[in-house]
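testing teh design pipeline on a random one, pls ignore if ur not involved
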């Protein structure tokens, strides 16, 4: 997957968890929690959604690596690349 495809997947997954964010601009380096009213359950559902969409196992110790659009894209790209 390209970075652009991953960013779109991350945005779709975030919107699945918080549909009220539709149309909101997502700053790549600002945490989702700082940008939006995302609580811990929303974030956990976001992680689960990413796992379902990509098949990438995401251990709890890595959750902080998925708090921004840029970091989530980089994390998933590295995990998908290392799987092949």
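output:
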């Amino acid at each position: 997957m390209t970075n652009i495809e991953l960013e779109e997947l991350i945005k779709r997954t975030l919107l699945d968890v918080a549909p009220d964010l539709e149309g909101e601009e997502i700053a790549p380096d600002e945490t989702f929690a700082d940008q939006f009213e995302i609580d811990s359950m929303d974030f956990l559902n976001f992680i689960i959604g990413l796992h379902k969409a990509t098949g990438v196992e995401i251990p709890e110790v890595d959750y902080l690596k998925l708090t921004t659009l840029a970091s989530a894209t980089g994390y998933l790209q590295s995990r998908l690349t290392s799987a092949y």
